[in-house]
Design a protein that fits this description.
The chain has about 110 residues and is mainly α. It has a domain at about 1-50. The protein contains two helices and no strands. It starts with a helix and ends in a 43-residue tail after the last helix.
Length: about 110
């Protein structure tokens, strides 16, 4: 009878060890999966930020010279500076012409 109890005890210990091993492997697999998903999310975020920066750079470089020369100001708010006199005479000031060179009409200015 003692031998049967000993075999049952060894079988129980082996079963508990097997369950603990499976639980450990499952935990390690879960942690590895979470780490992988976090890494993929980080790489996707960095790729997205790089793409947005690239698109912004290309859009700025392809924009007309007037739009990339400074911040956006409408004709209604822009400060006009007078041209200094020169010996050859004054050059025409395009800002004072009747037609604005800005692609957006002044009536869209709200500030």
């Amino acid at each position: 009878m003692a031998f049967v109890a000993f075999v049952a005890f060894v079988a129980f210990v082996a079963f508990v060890a097997f369950v603990a091993f499976v639980a450990f492997v499952a935990f390690v697999a879960f942690v590895a999966f979470v780490a992988f998903v976090a890494f993929v999310a980080f790489v996707a975020f960095v790729a997205f930020v790089a793409f947005v920066a690239f698109v912004a750079f290309v859009a700025r470089e392809l924009a007309p010279a007037g739009l990339r020369s400074g911040p956006f100001f409408c004709d209604c708010c822009a400060i006009e500076r007078e041209q200094a006199p020169s010996p050859q005479g004054l050059a025409p000031n395009p800002a004072k012409s009747s037609k604005s060179s800005h692609p957006f009409p002044s009536k869209l200015c709200f500030f």
